[in-house]
Design brief:
The radius of gyration is 21 Å and the shape is globular. A 6-stranded antiparallel beta sheet has the order 8-9-10-12-11-13. Strands 1-2-3-6 form a 4-stranded antiparallel beta sheet. The protein has 3 domains: 96 residues, 2-Layer Sandwich (Phosphorylase Kinase, domain 1), CATH 3.30.200; 37 residues, no CATH class; 188 residues, 2-Layer Sandwich (HIT family, subunit A). The chain is an alpha+beta fold. α5 crosses α10 and α7 packs antiparallel against α8. It has 10 helices and 14 strands. The protein binds 7N-methyl-8-hydroguanosine-5'-diphosphate. The site of 7N-methyl-8-hydroguanosine-5'-diphosphate has 12 residues, from loops.
């Protein structure tokens, strides 16, 4: 138990590699493989908070901006769900403080053993201004993008502005998260790597979240897909579902399989989440069912080149300004 608790902490904090990275300048290290599984030094002990980007009492998380060894950083803290298999230990091994008692009702503060009271922690360091914006709570606006808008507004913008996808290449090249891979088809054309999304702590299937990252490196998003990519998409759909059934015992009827448009990272990937889990970004304004994408490309090979697509953009997203400048909003 202690081992797996430590593993979870190190997985989410990002391993010893992080402290190494923090001390070094940005871009110094491209390799994400650290000593996963061992207890990490507390790289957050010197974290200096500058502002809270957003928080949610309901989701029990907080997104904090600050400095880590003089570098900009974003830290995400999130309380994890209470697992059924931990209940016996939670009841027997905790301390209870009575808060109030009234008739048949009583409330307590329960102090659980530390390993049952972990906080999933994600660190982005060095964080760019774009990361800060991504995690800041903001009003958003729905944008209508024609095929021409994509060519004249969106594509030039993402070519200049998008997030680094080094983390994706680290996964594909087994330089990071290699021990987390659930399934891989190594074929360069139709192959992909399936692994847990870093939002998922893998402790319970209720909030299952995996991503399939394609081996092909020149497909940015939904907009680049044509009927030529059908074998790739069908392969991901079929083998991804099979791998999840085998590993997690979840049948296809329990899965929501989709792509984001716009994505944050412009290297084609597919999201696999458990049906019923309200994963961030699974709403109709951003998620496109993989099954629909396949059917649309079967009926029109250039469907995603020509269709008008809708998506939300945050108030201070540079792409939103470009749409405004072009008089498209
Ligand atoms: P997206 O649709 O490009 O953007 O999805 P979103 O983050 O706005 O949803 C990228 C997915 O990759 C998200 O679900 C992220 O949580 C996940 N992700 C991002 N990073 C940097 C990592 C990482 O380093 N490792 C893993 N396993 N997942 C990541």
């Amino acid at each position: 138990m202690a081992d797996s608790a430590a593993k979870r902490e190190i997985d989410s904090v990002g391993s010893d590699e992080l402290s190494h990275k923090v001390k070094k300048a940005k871009g110094d290290s491209e390799n994400g493989q650290g000593e996963v599984g061992k207890e990490s030094e507390n790289v957050l002990s010197g974290f200096k908070t500058s502002s809270v980007l957003s928080d949610s009492a309901r989701e029990k998380n907080i997104f904090v901006r600050g400095k880590l060894a003089d570098q900009d950083a974003v830290v995400i803290l999130e309380k994890t769900p209470i697992r059924e298999d931990a209940l016996a230990e939670l009841f027997s091994g905790s301390r209870l403080r009575l808060e109030m008692r009234n008739d048949i009702y009583s409330t307590y503060r329960l102090q659980a053993p530390p390993h049952l009271n972990e906080i999933k922690t994600t660190v982005v360091c060095p964080a760019t201004e774009k990361h800060v914006k991504k995690y800041q709570r903001q009003e958003s606006f729905l944008v209508e993008e024609t095929g021409e808008d994509y060519q004249s507004i969106t594509l030039p913008y993402i070519q200049k502005q998008s997030f680094s996808i080094q983390w994706v290449y680290n996964i594909l090249e087994k330089k990071a998260e290699a021990d987390r891979i659930v399934y891989e088809d190594p074929d360069p054309e139709v192959g992909f790597v399936l692994l847990p999304d870093f939002k998922w702590d893998q402790k319970q299937v209720d909030d299952l979240y995996l991503i399939a990252i394609v081996h092909q490196r020149d497909i940015r998003s939904l907009r680049d897909l044509t009927s030529e990519h059908l074998p790739l998409l069908q392969n991901i759909f079929q083998k991804g579902k099979e791998a999840i059934l085998q590993r997690y015992k979840l049948p296809a009827s329990k899965l929501r399989v989709y792509l984001h448009y716009q994505p944050s990272y412009y290297h084609l990937h597919v999201h696999f989440t458990k049906l019923g889990y309200e994963a961030p970004g699974c709403g109709v304004e951003r998620a496109h069912f993989l099954a629909d994408v396949i059917q649309n490309l079967q009926s029109d090979p250039h469907y995603y080149k020509t269709r008008t697509l809708f998506f939300p953009l945050r108030a201070d997203d540079g792409l939103l300004s470009k749409f405004k400048e072009a008089g498209r909003l």
